[in-house]
Every structure is written in structure tokens, then in C-alpha cells.
Write a structure and sequence with these properties.
The protein has 72 residues and is mostly helical. The protein has one domain. It contains four helices and no strands.
Length: 72
């Protein structure tokens, strides 16, 4: 499964729309959007993207990514 810059940009755009919400709200909303197809990504593609960027993140960011992966 492959992903491209457009997929990454879409995920970033969605994340920006979540500003001001609690971490749990964001994780639930992102997972819901991805599972429903509303996010423009399949759960498998989203998980692959998240796992790809994980090594570039700090510990706090990795913890949040893992939380989202578990929700998917």
C-alpha cells in the first residue's frame, strides 16, 4: 500500500481543523473520519502513514499517534 503527498496534506488539514479540542476528542474524531472514509483515507493507509512518520516524532507525539492507531 502506498501513499502520497496529497494524502499527507489531507491528514495535516484535518488535524488543523481539530485545534482547540481535547486530545481524546481529536483522536475519536480522526478515527471516526478515517473509518467512515470522510477523511479521504482508509484505515490501513492512515495507519501506514502514521507508522511511517512515527520515528520522526518526539515521545509525546508518538504516544498520541499510538492512541490514534489503537482507535482505528
Amino acid at each position: 500500500m502506498e501513499f502520497n503527498t496529497q494524502d499527507m496534506n489531507r491528514m495535516s488539514q484535518i488535524a488543523r481543523q481539530m485545534r482547540g479540542k481535547s486530545e481524546d476528542e481529536i483522536v475519536r474524531e480522526l478515527a471516526r473520519m478515517i473509518r467512515s472514509g470522510e477523511g479521504g483515507l482508509t484505515p490501513g493507509k492512515a495507519e501506514q502513514m502514521l507508522r511511517t512518520i512515527q520515528p520522526m516524532l518526539n515521545n509525546e507525539q508518538r504516544r498520541k499517534i499510538q492512541k490514534l492507531i489503537r482507535e482505528l
